[in-house]
């Protein structure tokens, strides 16, 4: 097994805005001292026991976070700042850059967080072409439509969790999109990519990108993800093609180290990048990778920083793991049943519901609108999916439609 070791090791890390308890556990397991910086509001419960020092800010603006990090470093130097949260990866990179710490350039999260900037970056690379343009007016949208035709996609340049992703099938509705664009940070129009969608989970070491897994994805209304399976049941040549495209993408944005989660559509022209992120996949994908193919992505992050040798060869004998989300109709929750039955179903490792009777449920427009999920394992992708979907069906969230108010 090939072993990889970071050229500059650290003994202390600054976690910025991290909430997941598995992240601090991984840092501790790697033998690292942990300093924490983040907003006071919603601060995680594990800080008292999990962090050696804590700095909470009432104003978690980028300027305040950078100033606080510099003060912390002057008093008790840390080797690198880390965040695995989209909201903080940019300022974390800027902290490292300002302090001269060995880490990814701030240009990396700039290219991943800004979808239009990502397209500009990839346009000059060997990555397969996806026609895209920044848009802000009805004339911009009409010009883009005349170039690529309908349908096409419009989405916020800084969007997360499928929020605001809109399929434009005709000129009807362009005015509504423009109304949403006004006063925002910017939007991007992209050609519609037709084909099955996957995400490629990788870990990079000194600019070398290692494949961990390919995730199969299932979409619901408004492009919201309603299920995942790892590994996606694909022939080896397809996995190689997806991996090659993602490698070219990560090279183009300049990722040197750490996890990446890259979404790809397999079109009739070959793989095409949807977007990429310099953090582990959300929606429990990191847990699916651990259950199915072995590597714990959070642990890889901190073992790498601590200078522990990494064995990045994925096991040839793998299992499979899948997750399926609850997506009831909009309305008011009247009852929640079946959680014990779902948790005791074959292969299930986790099942949860995020709503209670009396809660209001909106239409499925983003990842935040899902009401719970099940994770299950199996010997094959098909079995894991069947188990996850079957257990999810045991979770009965009864919703009463809210009355329509006529003005």
pLDDT averaged residue by residue: 91
How much of the sequence lies in strands comes to 25-35%
Q: Helix tally?
A: 13
User: Which percent range fits the helix content?
Assistant: 25-40%
Number of strands: 21
Instruction: Describe the main β-sheet briefly.
Output: 8 strands, antiparallel
Protein traits:
13 helices; 407 residues; eight-stranded antiparallel β-sheet
Short description:
The protein has 407 residues and is α+β, with helices and mostly antiparallel strands. Helices cover 31% and strands 29% of the residues. It contains 13 helices and 21 strands.
Task: Give a written overview of the molecule.
The protein is an alpha+beta fold. It contains 13 helices and 21 strands. The chain has helices at residues 21-29, 47-50, 62-75, 89-98, 107-113, 115-123, 138-148, 174-181, 236-253, 285-293, 297-305, 339-343, 381-394, and strands at residues 3-4, 12-16, 33-39, 53-57, 80-82, 132-135, 152-156, 166-168, 187-191, 197-205, 208-219, 225-230, 258-267, 270-277, 310-311, 320-325, 331-337, 348-353, 360-361, 372-378, 396-400. The strands form five sheets. The protein has an eight-stranded antiparallel β-sheet with strand order 14-13-10-11-12-16-20-18, with helices on both faces. Strand 13 and strand 14 (270-277) form a beta hairpin. The longest helix is centred in the middle third of the chain and has 18 residues, at 236-253. The chain is globular and about 60 Å long.
